Amino acid sequence: MELDPQDLTSSDRYKLLIGSVVPRPIAFVSSLSPQGVVNLAPFSYFNAVGHSPMALMFSVSQKPDQSAKDTLRNVRPVSEGGTGEYVINLAVESYVQQVAEAAEPLPYSQSEFDYLDLTTAPSQVIAPPRVAESPVAFECKTLQIVPVGTFNVVIGEVVHLYVRDDLVDDNYHVNTDLVAAVGRMAGYDYCRTRDRFTIANGFPPEKKAALDATA
C-alpha cells in the first residue's frame, strides 16, 4: 500500500499517524492564565528536544472552532497575551485515569484541578504549579512556538526540575520502574513502560570486528 497524505482525509491521516507512531509519551501540562486560573491538559505529541540546553516540545491542535486551546493561550509569551511559563508533569500509572479525564474541555475560567483527584504544589522558579503527585516535573519557559498547519509546536527550556528522591541514584540515573510512566497508543489505548529489553547501540562485536578488518 502506497499512500499520498494529500489524498487522505484529515481523519484518516490522524488514524494512520497515531496508530503507527507508538508508543507516544504524554506531556501532562499545567499552566496559568494571566487571570490566575490553573489549567491542566495532556498532549501525546510530546518529546525531548535536547539537553544543552535542556528543552522539551509538545504540539497543540486547535479547537474544533479553530480557536486556540487554553494551554496554548497560557504558554504564549507575555507580549502575546500569555504567561510564557508551564510545567510538564509525567503521565503515570497511578493517576492515568485523571490524565484521560483532563482532556475534557472546560471553559477558560475553570480549572481542571477543581474536578480531578489531583493536587497542586508550588513551582520553584515559575508561577504555574506542578502536579504534586507527579514523580518528575519540568518547569519550563517558552522559547518558541512554531505554527505547523492547524498545530502549534511549543518549545520550552527547562529552568528547574522536581524529581522524587527515591527515583534517582547518586549518578542521576532514573529508576524507570518506579516512575511507572504510561504511553499513548491509538484510540483509547495506553501502554506501560515496564516491559523492556536491552540492545547496545551500534554494531555487535562480531560485525564491528569484520568492519575494522576491512578498514
Give an overview in words:
There is one protein chain. With 215 residues, the protein is α+β, with helices and mostly antiparallel strands. It has one domain: Electron Transport, Fmn-binding Protein, Chain A (Pnp Oxidase, Chain A, Roll), CATH 2.30.110.10. The chain is built from five helices and eleven strands, in the order H-E-E-E-E-H-E-H-E-E-E-E-H-E-E-H.
Characterize the biggest β-sheet. 7 strands, antiparallel
Structural class of the secondary elements? alpha+beta
Q: What is the CATH topology descriptor?
A: Pnp Oxidase, Chain A
Low-confidence stretches: none
N-to-C order of helices and strands: HEEEEHEHEEEEHEEH
**Annotation, overall tally of beta strands:** 11
Give the strand order, joined by hyphens, for the main sheet. 2-1-5-8-9-4-3
Helix content: 10-25%
Tell me what the CATH architecture is: Roll
**Top CATH class:** Mainly Beta
Tally of separate helices: 5
Percent of residues in beta strands:
25-35%
Cα shape:
globular
* Average pLDDT figure: 96
Oligomer, anyone?
A: single chain
List keywords for this structure.
215 residues; alpha+beta; Pnp Oxidase, Chain A; seven-stranded antiparallel sheet; two-stranded antiparallel sheet; 11 strands
Short description:
The chain is α+β, with helices and mostly antiparallel strands. The chain is built from five helices and eleven strands.
Structural topology:
Blueprint: H1 10-20, E1 27-32, E2 38-43, E3 46-51, E4 54-61, H2 70-75, E5 85-90, H3 96-101, E6 120-121, E7 130-131, E8 136-148, E9 151-163, H4 176-179, E10 182-184, E11 190-192, H5 205-214
Antiparallel strand pairs: 1-2, 1-5, 3-4, 4-9, 5-8, 6-7, 8-9, 10-11
